[in-house]
């Protein structure tokens, strides 16, 4: 059965499990059962507190990240492997069963040219080694293709599926994001179909990263496409209401994404549930 998630930056500038008992009940009242917490600083992330807060509030934790700007997957391959290995352990200690996001590169970092063969090879080596670490922790590793303005490495579901099939690791999945898909894919249906059996996680994000239903994204087509492929995984509303300065420039978010921050939850979540149900996907 599909599950509804919410990204932490939609309701708090910095995830703090000490605030969970206050913040989460109004969110779970909308049917949210998954909370995505970004690992902006894995070394100082409170895994124990997060696990306990999740258990008290009856939610599942998903962790996500992008590689720090100083990492180059070709030149600093070993450093990236170590960093992701540490992040996987942090996520596992928090109770997460997966680590996803731009696990193959840095958000907002582009070369000015197409992805090179050396870069593709480096991604495959990185994913191979990190997926082995994930397997020892009984975890899965997600790869999120992003739009051309945020990375030149992986932009589409088809490119990402190609990497996964080269590596051949069963615990690696594609993490698609409707914001990026709206820019890069031929259509929502085409993107989900290209991901195929590798699709394991979906970010639901409006065309302006704000309140779902208040932008130009075709939500009816999006949910119909997910229903048509029989998707049964987590669908997480991602909106950058509270954006950490270290990633704001990478995402090119220069102004508030919503006039009223609370509208992302109070209007956006019910809208998503309604649209999903109309397509035959029960997120209640």
UniProtKB/TrEMBL annotation:
Keyword set, alphabetical order: Isomerase
Domain Xylose isomerase-like TIM barrel: 31-249
Molecular-function GO terms, alphabetical: isomerase activity
Gene3D superfamilies referenced in this protein's UniProt entry, alphabetically: Divalent-metal-dependent TIM barrel enzymes
Name the record gives this protein: D-tagatose 3-epimerase
Leading EC class: isomerase
Domain of life of the source: Bacteria
Family matches, as PANTHER family: 3-DEHYDRO-D-GULOSIDE 4-EPIMERASE-RELATED (PTHR43489:SF7), ISOMERASE (PTHR43489)
Enzyme Commission number(s) of this protein: 5.3.1.-
Species classification: Bacteria, Pseudomonadati, Pseudomonadota, Alphaproteobacteria, Hyphomicrobiales
Pfam families: AP_endonuc_2
């Amino acid at each position: 059965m599909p599950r509804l998630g919410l990204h932490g930056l939609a309701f708090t500038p910095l995830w703090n499990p000490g605030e969970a008992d206050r913040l989460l009940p109004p969110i779970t009242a909308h049917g949210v059962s998954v909370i995505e917490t970004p690992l902006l600083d894995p070394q100082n992330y409170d895994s124990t507190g997060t696990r306990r807060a999740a258990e008290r509030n009856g939610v599942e934790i998903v962790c996500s990240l992008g590689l720090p700007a100083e990492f180059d997957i070709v030149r600093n391959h070993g450093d990236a492997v170590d960093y992701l290995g540490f992040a996987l352990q942090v996520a596992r200690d928090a109770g997460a069963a997966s680590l996803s996001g731009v696990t193959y590169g840095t958000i907002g970092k582009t070369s000015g040219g197409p992805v090179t063969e050396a870069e593709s090879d480096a991604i495959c080596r990185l994913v191979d080694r990190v997926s082995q670490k994930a397997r020892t922790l009984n975890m899965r590793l997600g790869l999120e293709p992003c739009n051309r303005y945020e990375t030149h490495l992986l932009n589409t579901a088809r490119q990402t599926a190609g990497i996964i099939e080269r590596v051949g690791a069963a615990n690696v999945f594609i993490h698609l994001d409707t914001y990026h898909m709206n820019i890069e894919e031929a259509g929502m249906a085409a993107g989900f179909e290209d991901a195929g059996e590798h699709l394991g996680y979906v970010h639901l994000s409006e065309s302006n990263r704000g309140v779902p239903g208040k932008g130009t994204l075709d939500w009816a087509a999006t949910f119909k496409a997910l229903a048509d492929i029989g998707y049964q995984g987590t669908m997480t509303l991602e909106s950058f209401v509270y954006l950490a300065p270290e990633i704001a420039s990478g995402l090119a978010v220069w102004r508030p994404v919503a006039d009223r921050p609370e509208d992302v939850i109070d209007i956006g979540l019910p809208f998503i549930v309604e649209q999903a149900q109309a397509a035959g996907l029960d997120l209640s």
